[in-house]
Amino acid sequence: MIKYEINPAFLPREAKIMALPVRFEKEGQIIYRGRNLIKIMTLDDLQINVKSFKRPHILNRFIYAWFRKSKAERSYINALKLLEMGIGTPEPIAYLVYKNAKGVNRSYYISIQQPCDYVLLDLLRQRPPDFEELFRAYVHFVYEFHQKGVYFIDLSTGNTLISRGEAGKHRFYLVDLNRIIFKSRPLTPFEGMRNFCRIDLDDSDLDFVIREYALITKVPETALRRVLFRYKRKEALRRRTKRSLKIFKKKKR
Predict the structure, then answer these.
(1) pLDDT in tens, 186-230
(2) Which tens digits make up the pLDDT trace of 142-178?
(3) Which of 123, 216, 233, 240 has CB 3.0 to 4.6 Å from 118, enough for a Cys bridge?
(4) Is 85 within 8 Å of 66 (Cβ atoms)?
């Protein structure tokens, strides 16, 4: 059984889209291999991005099949919603979810391959001459989607693409979209700071984020810093606990 949805703009290519999982096994350029596998492929004259999600553990296979939207479906829905709100993300093409008697077996999210100058992580490492201008524009981009009520749970250095433009016209695109909370109101400055807690930045870059967000929101830097570091401590504890559990499970095997 397969559950899928195709962006109406790409419906004329439906047969070719449905054939992508078969092609995925033997074609494409791998750009990420980890928990999930991401490849750049072609769809006629288009360069596309195909993300194959790791098969869920046995309980989630059942939950995603019958009670909760899969990560692939959520990525597709969230991408459409972000674009509707005027927030940058690569154009979604489709999601495909394959089920069997045990639940979700395979799932794919397909989007246009978005050309860019940097992933945020690369910007932070390379430090081009206009680094400060680009980084300031990035903080403003995050503030703008916070004002639209978007809490991007996986805000991290690997999940924002940056395209350099003329001054004031740089473009930013969010990726890895399966975990987003859409609120019916703007985020408070403190919620905004909490959203930044998962970004790994050195002290000077963290100071820059706090200072810039304080200038935008008119909230004292000391108050924002206190909130951000409280949540960063919680995030660090969460990561340590997660690592410890993984080590414990490996030892049990």
Answers:
(1) 999 999 999 999 899 999 999 999 999 999 999 999 999 999 999
(2) 999 999 999 999 999 999 999 998 777 899 999 999 9
(3) 123
(4) no
**d(Cα 156, Cα 153) in Å, to the nearest integer?**
9
Distances (CA, A) of 26 to 21, 93, 109, 253: 9, 21, 17, 32
Three-state secondary structure call for residue 119: strand
Mean pLDDT of the chain: 92
Measure the CA–CA gap between 98 and 52, rounded to whole angstroms: 11
Query: From the CA atom positions of the chain, what is the Rg in Å?
Result: 20
Terminus-to-terminus CA distance in the chain, angstroms? Answer: 33
C-beta contacts of 45-50 below 8 A and 24+ residues apart: 46/112, 46/113, 47/112, 47/113, 48/93, 48/110, 48/111, 48/112, 48/113, 49/90, 49/110, 49/111, 49/112, 49/113, 49/114, 50/20, 50/24, 50/108, 50/109, 50/110
Q: Which of 188, 180, 175, 173 is nearest to 153 (CA)?
A: 180
- Please tell me the distance from the alpha carbon of residue 49 to that of residue 109, in angstroms, as a whole number: 8
More confident residue, 6 or 166: 6
Question: Could you tell me how far CA 245 lies from the centroid of its own chain?
Answer: 25
Pairwise CA distance, residues 69 & 73, whole Å: 6
Q: Which residues are 111's β-sheet partners?
A: 49, 92
| Tokens linked to 234 | 């919680």
